């Protein structure tokens, strides 16, 4: 027979089975669209994040997660479609089409539906992302840097991935047809599903994987490692969730069933047995809902806290409004050169004051001090320097005089000649009674653990060495530089920092002008000028895009969740109709049936939400650490954002539940 | 007063646009005593299923009265109807209507569980009814694992487990082969002998021949009835088929 015939047959089948193919096509298109949108944002994210690798990594990882969920959804919905189609194929078989001919029909069906969904999905993805983008720009007035250009590479990869998924579907369909006898095919859709067996091993595996993911999240201390471990934990929890919903739920229901006292109860009886059978097909859908819900909540809450917390984040990084660093022209070798450096600093300070007078702002809380800074590594109780750049062992060293340190931090350390004071935020560096740098040993007066409110963040190791005199700074500089060359960020600096008071506009103008001002005043040795207000503006622009992407992904995933819920309700409505009709016949009033349906739906709906809530709770510690790495240390804000998002999401979820259960009720036909 | 009394029952169906009226039941009158085994025979379209539905309170009569055990069915409120059905009536359907997600045992227990009974009460009743129709060893199986006859016997169990006053059976042998039919009818006879009132609608002569009395319904009216008296099943069978032949001949003359 000619190929054209199969194509025509396939096309006719699709048209005649619209009620089966249409929902499947819609779901497939949406899945493709979602994947495309995430993927294209991820591919363009470098424009937005500008080296913020963690965000880029998170997006890439997000793309992979979406890919997995997409594959699962498509495989799962395909199974539902095939079950309804098998009878038809059985009929073909009996009417004289060989199985290899049926395979050809299936090939064409898959090709038409698959290609159609991929095309529609990609188009919808492009249009929708552009539309959302425009709405956001107009609504929030955000300046986003995402160009939303269409990348051929992204298109090609998306097409490739989904073509593969559809090919796998086709393979399974052919396998199914090849395995069944014609008579079995005829009976397939009418035959009751076999009672699912409790797969204890998989259930246990699910528990272990979820527990392992939770354990990683709760116990990870080092934020530098947190990001990588976070991915591992997320993968474990996702796989574990699927296992738990698939096998764990059945095992759990079987246990309930064994408990005769619980089982033989008006609502439990029907619900438990109904769920038991239904879980086989529903597990995938419920697990997907659960995972997507978790992703939505995490994305939205972190994005909101990042956006709202910009101010805090900038303050951690830029504690003072203006920070001017002055360095010498060459390496500072003796006290005379230190004095010259201090004079340079003074000139810079005077210039800054003159500008303040001109711009009508006042300078307050001035802090001027000399510091020797270097970054190196600490391992096995000694300092060292090499190319490994191991973030775990990185130590930022600051050497200051006791006088300066006391002045800046309002502390009262006492200087003793020839003895140093060592302060740090990590106890690992506090080894021994004295300070060992290379082969040299320095006597220490005291060593102490401090919590840093100033200077730097608490998540990397900071070491302060307070010395009685400028001469000691030079000694330590010599000792550190004897370790290796070159040291990172090393050198003697004079820091001139202060806050501004005045109108916000005046302060912003001051910040934007200070750099040029120093040049016109011909102040020498300015190595860096940072001002809080300029950097805040930059950050706002940067985070606007981050915020946009977060909201965007949140909306996409929410849409996907709604879709799965809808699909589930519809597919179940058809199946349950028969059961509830029977129950009506043997003496159950409509009211009682509705009650039963409600409790059943509620259970099915609340389960993913509850598990998602549990995931969020356990994910919280590790996400907080990642956020801290991005300098968001305002925990109260983050807790509020998370809880708020959870509530809003639960609200939306419930509305979707109400709306879709109407569809279900209509199908079951008790109203 | 009779146990079941059907008085001047009429049922008129109106087509959707109200232009055509179809009289499914014209004027049905009969009574049944407690413990009677009554068969209602008639051709397709004669109104026998309508009659059963009205008896079962699934459908409402247009006029007339149905009194079961002194209680007039019309007076029962809609809300209480389901409960009434559950407590006073048992049903056996042609297509079994078992739930696929339950084992046979669970299907049988369903009415009791729905009525809020506790497991310790349910279990002995389940064993008792299962023994009556001989499916004790099948209780753990699912409907798709057993034959049609076995399914129907389970359905009978489900109908009698609530100890209803009246069992209504709608073509119970309609989907069964002759051997399964016989086993089912044996089961019916068995439960009838233990004092159960049964009303069965059928067009199988063999099934009707097992009943204590057979009512013939035609065009919405009862026009004949046969009492078993001392007749054996075979004699009953002969008599029913004679009556049916007579009916056919009458029809022929009318045409």
TrEMBL record, chain A:
Query: Does this UniProt record's set of keywords contain Glycosyltransferase?
Result: no
Q: Signal peptide position in this chain? A: none
Q: Which InterPro entries match?
A: ABC-4_Integral_Memb_Prot, ABC3_permease_C, ABC_permease_BceB-typ
Q: What is the protein's membrane topology class?
A: Multi-pass membrane protein
Entry keywords, A to Z: Cell membrane, Membrane, Transmembrane, Transmembrane helix, Transport
What's the protein called, per UniProt? ABC transporter permease
Say which family it is in. Belongs to the ABC-4 integral membrane protein family.
PROSITE patterns given for it?
PROKAR_LIPOPROTEIN
Sequence ranges assigned to domain ABC3 transporter permease C-terminal in this UniProt record: 63-180
- Residue ranges spanning the membrane: these are 21-38, 58-77, 105-138, 150-172, 200-217, 229-256, 285-310, 542-567, 603-623, 638-657
Q: Where in the cell is it found?
A: Cell membrane
Q: Where's it mainly located?
A: membrane
Automatic annotation (TrEMBL), chain B:
Its keywords, alphabetically, are: ATP-binding, Nucleotide-binding, Transport
The keyword RNA-binding appears for this protein? no
Query: Where in this chain does the record put each ABC transporter domain?
Result: 4-244
Q: Which Gene3D superfamilies match?
A: P-loop containing nucleotide triphosphate hydrolases
Q: What Pfam families has UniProt attached to this entry?
A: ABC_tran
- Key word ATP-binding present in the record? yes
Q: Please give the InterPro entries that the UniProt record associates with this protein.
A: AAA+_ATPase, ABC_transporter-like_ATP-bd, ABC_transporter-like_CS, MacB-like_ATP-bd, P-loop_NTPase
Which CDD domains does the annotation name?
ABC_MJ0796_LolCDE_FtsE (cd03255)
Instruction: Give start-end ranges for the coiled-coil region(s).
Output: none
* MF (Gene Ontology): ATP binding
Family the UniProt entry places it in: Belongs to the ABC transporter superfamily.
Q: What protein name does the entry list?
A: ABC transporter ATP-binding protein
